[in-house]
Amino acid sequence: MAQITITDEMIRSAKKDQAERERLIARQQAAREARELAAKKAARKKRGQQALALSIGLIIFIVLAFSGFVLRDYEFSNAGGHLQLVSRMSIPAGGSVYIDSSVPGKLTLSSNSSNNAVAYEYAISRFKNMMFSYTYRSEIPKKTIGMLKEGKKYYVRVRIYKKNPAGREVHGPWGSVKAGKVRESK
Predict the structure, then answer these.
(1) 4 FRET partner, CA 20 to 30 A, in 21, 85, 124, 141?
(2) pTM of the model
């Protein structure tokens, strides 16, 4: 049986190796923390730059909009206690919407046809105040919207698009909101 003799030099060498390993681990951890801190600082700086660019762009847009350079076809109106965009061209409101639910899961929307109308835009929502509404555009005054929940009530409104003298499409105000219930399958 071989006998292993551990000398003081071997113990010192093992302790030295362990201390060196611990220093290496500490250096690696410090470098990792420094990289994470630098990444956080860079992300914070990038967010700040993006917010600054967005706010500058918004300020420029507002100045140009009020001076008439950006919104040539629309103007700001303070009607009803809130600021809204209104077409400079006289376009009638969308009028009333007729709702037909003869097919389960679908609503067929139609509107009064208007002279020189280029398109019709329908907004549909589950809420009467038209929050979270989806908009659908149609070149004709009739539009069928499918994949709706059967037996549920939906609210609909319409607005009309016309061409202004410069040839650009301009929309009028939204018409009145109408409610319709989707037919259930039997």
Answers:
(1) 21
(2) 0.59
For residue 12, what are its two tokens?
A: 């010192």
Comparing 34 with 77, the larger pLDDT belongs to 34
Residue listed under structure tokens 């109408």: 178
Closest to 114 in 3D by CA, of 79, 81, 162: 162
Name residues whose C-beta falls within 8 Å of residue 150's C-beta, 6 or more positions apart in sequence: 104, 105, 182, 183, 184, 185
Q: Which two tokens stand for residue 35?
A: 């990289």
The Cα–Cα gap between 143 and 108 comes to: 6
Q: Which of 60-64, 69-73, 133-137, 171-175 has the lowest mean pLDDT?
A: 69-73
Q: Which CATH number fits domain 91-181: 3.10.350.10, 3.40.50.1240, 3.40.50.2300, 2.60.40.10?
A: 2.60.40.10
